[in-house]
Write a structure and sequence with these properties.
The complex is a heterodimer of chains A (about 170) and B (about 110).
Chain A: H1 2-20, H2 24-44, H3 48-72, H4 85-109, H5 125-134, H6 137-158
Helix pairs in contact in A: 1-2, 2-3
Chain B: H1 2-6, H2 13-33, H3 37-62, H4 66-96
Classes of the chains: A mainly alpha (about 170), B mainly alpha (about 110).
Chain lengths: ~170, ~110
């Protein structure tokens, strides 16, 4: 039980560090740590497939993509210009209000049963694969189309085009 | 191995919802606070992950595998979104020599 709260504390801490770090490279590294804590949460929920996919796709692919983009964009000329203090206070107040509203609505709801894992092999690859390839076969194929079009779009956008310089 | 998963069984569902809403709010604050387009993008990823964790917790709570399949689709969508978004950021950098979103306020008109 206490391991959940420890990991939750760590993920909130690293998430705060992500948005407060001055250097974008440090932000990305803190984001890696945040995603790692999420992977541990998935393992605690016995969602092993999601833990592996989170580990490979998020920490392996997406964050490496972020790091490569930062490498292409030379950001070490001068530090990032920050927003004015008024905008900062307004941003923190706005986000804080959102959190207070959600948590307050939850408190009004009242009841909370503990999360009990009724079926221990719920999140295993065998079980999820059967659901994925029976009920969700069409969305699965559509998502492959989506990934293909995203790949074509990314290549099209990122290649240098001499004719159309905006 | 069984006793390891016993640890989760005493965590109330509300605490998962509170954790996810806190992380989501941190993502919202990050989007509002920063001016670097890449950091804003990372905050969006943070929000997506908070929702993923909540969907998984509800899926385990109800014993329904559909929620976890949905999280899988969200992850595929996030991968596509990141590829296209980072390509757009690279193109913006090439045209304006910065990733500061305040430079892009010409898009208002």
């Amino acid at each position: 039980m206490s391991i959940f709260y420890f990991i939750a504390f760590l993920s909130i801490l690293f998430a705060v560090l992500v948005i407060s770090a001055k250097n974008p490279v440090h932000s990305i590294l803190y984001l890696v740590l945040t995603f790692f804590t999420f992977t541990i949460q998935y393992i605690l929920l016995n969602a092993q497939f999601l833990a592996i996919v989170n580990f490979i796709v998020y920490m392996g692919a997406i964050l490496v993509l972020f790091l490569y983009t930062l490498m292409l964009i030379n950001l070490n000329k001068d530090s990032e210009p920050m927003k004015t203090n008024l905008v900062k206070i307004a941003a923190v107040l706005g986000g804080g209000c959102l959190m207070v509203v959600i948590v307050g609505a939850l408190k009004a709801l009242g009841v909370s049963q503990p999360v009990v894992l009724k079926n221990p092999d719920l999140g295993l690859v065998k079980n999820l694969g059967k659901v994925l390839f029976n009920e969700f076969l069409l969305p699965f194929e559509v998502s492959s189309l989506l990934l293909l079009s995203a790949m074509v779009g990314a290549v099209l956008l990122a290649t240098k085009d001499k004719k159309t310089t905006a | 191995m069984e006793s390891f998963f016993e640890t989760v069984k005493t965590v109330p569902l509300n605490h998962y919802i509170i954790l996810s809403s806190v992380i989501f709010s941190i993502g919202v604050i990050g989007v509002l606070l920063r001016r670097n387009a890449i950091v804003i993008f990372m905050s969006v990823e943070l929000m997506l992950n908070a929702v993923n964790l909540l969907l998984t917790a509800f899926s385990v709570y109800h014993g329904d595998p559909n929620g976890q399949v949905f999280v899988f689709f969200i992850m595929a969508l996030a991968a596509a979104e990141v590829a296209v978004g980072l390509a757009i950021i690279v193109m913006i950098y090439r045209n304006t020599n910065s990733v500061d979103i305040n430079v892009l306020n010409r898009l208002k008109w």
